[in-house]
C-alpha cells in the first residue's frame, strides 16, 4: 500500500498543504501538519509543500513486479432461476473480439446449481473454457458467497481481463471483487477495445452526466475489470459444434455466512422486464401526477409491453427504480419505444439509443425528444393516451371476433 507522512523537522507550519487538500484531511498540531485517517492518498499536498516536508511512498507492487503471469479474457456468467442472462452472451461476444486482438483464450466463471447444460451453452456462445462451481449453496445469487468464490477463482486462474454485466447483481459484486483483488474497476462501459500499442484494455464510459466520454485504462493492476450494461453489446449466435473444456476449480466456501436468501419475489414491474421488452411505454414528468400513471399502464397492457420511466418520476416515487431508463437506469432495445411526456434529456436518451422505433408524445413541439423520434406527436398525453388505448382495444376486439 502507498503511504504518506509528515517529516516533522522540515515542516514550518505554513498550512499550504491544508489549503490544498480537497478532503480536509490535514490539521495542525503544535504548528506542525498532521494527516488524518480520511486521507485518500491523492498526492495534492505533496506538490503544495515547498519545504519537502511531505513524504509519499508510492506502492510499487504492480502486477509486473509481482512476477505473476496474467493472461486470457474472463467473463462472469450471471444466471437467474437457472437461466443464463442475455448480458453474459453479449459479454462473451465482446470477449471473443478482445481475445482475437490479444491472441488469447476466453474463459467464463459459472457459479450455480446443476450448471452443466448452461456450461455447454456458454461454450456454444464462444467460451474456450468454463470454470464452474456446482453447489446447492449457489442456487440463489448470494452477495456474500459469490464474490468470495469468484475472487478465489481469479487468484488461481489469473485472467488479465474480467468482464461483468452491469446488472443489479453485477453492480453489487463487482466492486467487492475489485477491492478483494486490489485492482481497478470501470463501471458501465459502453465501449471496450485493446490498445494496439500497449495491449491494455481501453474502457470507455460516459462521464460528467453523459456530457463527455472518458477512456480509462488500468496499467498497474490485474485483472483489468469492467462492467457493461445489458443491451449495449450484441450477442453472437450459438454454435453447438464448438468445443471447450469444463473445469471445476477447487474453492472453499466462506464460513459463518451472514446472508441467507429466504425467498425471491419479483415486483410487478419486473414481471415484464423493461430491459427485455419488445414494446416499452415510458412515462415522464408530462404525466402530471402519479394517478395519471394508470394511462401509461393501460397502454402498456393493451400492447403487451413494459412500463419504463424517467429518473425524474422515479425520484418522485411514481415508478420504481427497476423501471428507470437511461444513463443511471436500464438500457433498453425494444422494437417500439413510446415516450410519453418525456423531454429527452441526454441521460435519458443514453438508455434508448438501441430502440428500433421511437414514438414521442409531447406538448412542446421543440422538446429535444423529437430529434430522436421516428414519429413525433405534438399534444397532451392525458388526452392522447386514453384515445390510443380505446382504439387499440377496439382493434383487438375486432380481431378476436374475426378469429372466432
Ligand atoms: C448524472 C445524471 C444521471 C441521470 N440519469 C438519468 C437516467 O438514467 N434516466 C433519466 O430519465 N434521467 C436521468 N437523469 C435526469 C435527466 O437529466 C432529466 O432530468 C430527466 O430525464 C427529465 O425527466 P422528464 O423528461 O420526465 O422530465 P422533464 O425534463 O421535466 O420533461 C417533461 C416533459 O413533458 C412535457 N409535458 C408536460 N406536460 C405534458 C403533457 N400533458 N403531455 C405531453 N407532454 C407534456 C414537457 O414539454 C417536457 O418536455 C440524470 C441526470 C443526471 C445529472
Ligand atoms: S505545506 Fe509543508 S511545511 Fe507547510 S504546513 Fe504543510 S507540511 Fe508543513
Ligand atoms: S494526499 Fe490528498 S487527501 Fe491526503 S492529505 Fe494530501 S491532499 Fe489530503
UniProtKB/TrEMBL annotation:
One matching Pfam family is ETF_alpha
Q: What PROSITE patterns has UniProt attached to this entry?
A: 4FE4S_FER_1, 4FE4S_FER_2, ETF_ALPHA
Q: Which InterPro entries match?
A: 4Fe4S_Fe-S-bd (IPR017896), 4Fe4S_Fe_S_CS (IPR017900), DHS-like_NAD/FAD-binding_dom (IPR029035), ETF_a/b_N (IPR014730), ETF_a/FixB (IPR001308), ETF_alpha_N (IPR033947), ETF_asu_C (IPR014731), ETF_asu_C_CS (IPR018206)
Is Metal-binding one of the keywords?
yes
Asked if the Swiss-Prot or TrEMBL record annotates the protein with the keyword Transferase, the reply is no
Note the SMART domains from the entry: ETF (SM00893)
Which segments constitute the 4Fe-4S ferredoxin-type domain?
2-31, 37-59
Query: Could you tell me what this protein is called?
Result: FAD-binding protein
